[in-house]
Specification:
321 residues, alpha/beta, seven-stranded mixed sheet, six-stranded parallel sheet, 15 strands, 22% strand, globular, binds NADP nicotinamide-adenine-dinucleotide phosphate, binds zinc ion
């Protein structure tokens, strides 16, 4: 089905890939995997959608649909290789995919999400990556009401993590290297804020959290954060920085667990969108024209984004000045 794109969020993964920080980037590249738009045309076999529907496309556009992961609804872990929305290949293994910094995209109906009525569309776009990437580990690792949750890094993912943890009834604390984000953290729903630049922060808050969601995009010391977990606590990495060293003692002490999580499957993404509609949750966004994308990348790298840039795709149609 053909989708006219209205908004596309700017994920830090777009920057990592556009700048080839993970290696193997495919150029030319059209980034963007937080896509919201309107159905413009339907292929003959499309059954579930009608023209004019408001829809979303997230981080992948196809998978094998047969393997254990796919049948379990974990298409992002497809054993035969998921087709990422951009910087990947279609199932034929040779046609490069192109993402949402674009006026239109064609996607198989099974990989399209329904945007619930009532959600503001620019704010809904980041749910397609930042939303599901934080919702999925919170649910998978069973975060529940009353749990003490630390969210490390208050950026696109982090601010969604705070909102979602709060909606699940957990007590969220933001751990940030930007002391100026304290008020925002509390406004977003956190109960507490820890400035990680404070030399005493890591002793003062030792063994405090049941669960830590680490969204930091730059290299940092995992051991320091693991020490903030209580006995049997779990820290989940979703940020993808350069590698750093892990000490076994950080895990052995307190029988702690360190895990990772990658976006989420189609079923769970729809569940997250419906959960957000029910709880009135969207991303805090700064809408920009495409002409400001370079500046948006630079500001994101300086942690100067409140809290997600979203491209108004109408700006792509504007004549060049
Ligand atoms: P973002 O908006 O740039 O947020 C990252 C946050 O990390 C910043 O706001 C900042 O928070 C913190 N940070 C940045 N530089 C730091 C430094 N030098 N030291 C300590 N903290 C620093 O990025 P995002 O879009 O949320 O993405 C975060 C990471 O998740 C990226 O690596 C991205 O590729 C990855 N990601 C993973 C998945 C997945 O499925 N696993 C999905 C999407 C994105 P403070 O200012 O509060 O410290
Ligand atoms: Zn992303
Ligand atoms: Zn599969």
């Amino acid at each position: 089905m053909l989708i006219d794109i209205l908004f596309c969020g700017v994920c830090h993964s777009d920057i990592h890939q556009a700048r080839n920080e993970w290696g193997g980037s495919i150029f030319p590249m059209v980034p963007g995997h937080e896509i919201v738009g309107t159905v413009a045309a339907l292929g003959e076999q499309v059954r579930r959608w009608t023209c004019g529907d408001t829809v979303g496309v997230g981080c992948f556009v196809d998978s094998c649909r047969r393997c254990d992961a796919c049948t379990a609804g974990d298409e992002q872990h497809c054993e035969n290789g998921v087709a990422y929305t951009y910087n990947g290949y279609e199932r034929d293994g040779k046609t490069p995919t192109s993402g949402g910094y674009s006026t239109r995209i064609t996607v198989d109906e099974e990989f399209v999400l329904r945007i619930p009525k009532g959600l503001p569309l620019a704010g809904a776009a980041p749910l397609l990556c930042a939303g599901i990437t934080t919702y999925s580990p919170l649910r998978h690792f069973g975060v529940k009401a009353g749990d003490r949750v630390g969210v490390v890094g208050l950026g696109g993912l982090g601010h969604m993590g705070v909102k979602l943890a709060k909606a699940l009834g957990a007590k969220a604390t933001v751990l940030s290297h930007s002391a100026a984000k304290r008020d925002d953290a509390l406004r977003l729903g956190a109960e507490d804020f820890v400035a990680t630049g404070d030399p005493e922060a890591f002793t003062k808050h030792a063994a405090r959290f049941d669960f830590i969601l680490d969204t930091v995009s730059a290299r940092h010391d995992y051991n320091a954060y693991l020490n903030l977990l209580r006995r049997n606590g779990t820290m989940v990495l979703v940020g993808v920085p350069e590698p750093s060293q892990l000490s076994a003692i950080s895990l052995i002490t307190g029988r702690r667990r360190l895990a990772g999580s990658n976006i989420g499957g189609i079923r769970e993404t729809q569940e997250m969108l419906d959960f957000c509609a029910e709880h009135g949750i969207v991303s805090d966004v700064e809408v920009i024209p495409i002409q400001k994308i370079g500046e948006a990348y630079d500001r994101t790298l300086r942690s100067d984004v409140r809290y997600r840039f979203v491209i108004d795709i109408a700006s792509l149609e504007e004549p060049r000045s």
